[in-house]
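Hey all, sorry for the wall of text incoming. These are the four entities for the joint prediction.
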Amino acid sequence: MTGTRAYHHGDLRRALLAAALEAVGEVGPAALSLRDLARRAGVSHAAPAHHFGDKAGLLTAIAAQGFDLLAQTLTEADDDLLEAGVAYVDFAVTHRAYFEVMFRPELYRADDAELNAARGRAGAALRSGVAALSSGGAPADTDRDSLAAWSIAHGFATLWLAGALPDRVGDDPREAARAVLRRLST
Amino acid sequence: MTGTRAYHHGDLRRALLAAALEAVGEVGPAALSLRDLARRAGVSHAAPAHHFGDKAGLLTAIAAQGFDLLAQTLTEADDDLLEAGVAYVDFAVTHRAYFEVMFRPELYRADDAELNAARGRAGAALRSGVAALSSGGAPADTDRDSLAAWSIAHGFATLWLAGALPDRVGDDPREAARAVLRRLST
DNA sequence: TGTGAAACTTGCCAGTGACAAGATTGCGCG
DNA sequence: CGCGCAATCTTGTCACTGGCAAGTTTCACA
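and here's what came out:
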């Protein structure tokens, strides 16, 4: 939508986003340095400001992209709640940089329109997965169930990323998540 | 244990910790400024370094204190898993500054001894609550159950703090958490 | 071709964390 | 009683950061 064309650099906006994801993976979203990104992309220290305004603008773009990617991921696993939960955790681990930015709204513009659209899509995918599951059995409270499913998947993912989980859970996040998430289905 | 006595300032170490908690509540743990803390305490900009070494040292002290407080909280609600979960969420909301630091290990020294002792106490309290619950019924997998309970409580708390939850959950975290956590007991 | 706008640069300022070196204060020990 | 000494705190500095302003280069389009 903000179709930035290739000018002097080629595609600086995209290059900066890529560099940002790399940097976030290395030092976390808070320690991100715009000047470092500029160096990585081979441009002057003020170039990023032209494309994103400021640091919050850059992180807003990343968060929006992240919610978009998450919505896609959840939609693909739509008919199986357990696998959707596993996919959620897998997303967090695989796209750690996105995930860490997405749930740190104090770092970006939470009122951004494009971002909220993507966030809405992700939320809808989550709820539709829960609704599909409960449609066969007893009448369920979809609101509460989707909140519970989201909480347990999000909690496990967060704890995994924080390195807070004990060693005994192993090193395969998908497998470990599946075991924990199954606790909801029983 | 590092029994710092009152010298010139009176009790600068304690004053800095208090100021830090206040500041974390205002701007988040990453945007914390040591110089700002110094100003709040009325000392020179280099005074904090003497007590905490650097920023990571200060946040390590906060995280350790936080895990200690959490362990106490969980121990008090030990015999009721649901209420322990509610207490966990309540801790996160009430002591937001502590909670936000505790689960951001990239900001502090995760290998600190005192911190890990406190963290261990909190983990033990959590597991003992789960074990107590399952002792009466069918033989359960305490490892998995405690991981699930921790995940759902932690996830709900994190999403609540991030402002990611939809408006319909209301504004009472304890009540909302109880509804979601009950989903595990059924 | 040339004009206007977009993309980028250079230069600057205030603020920050960390370090080094010095000043001050109060405790312990003779 | 007083003196040394270590803990506490200050002053000064450096490299770095984000953000702003003003200038320069490059491209699109008439």
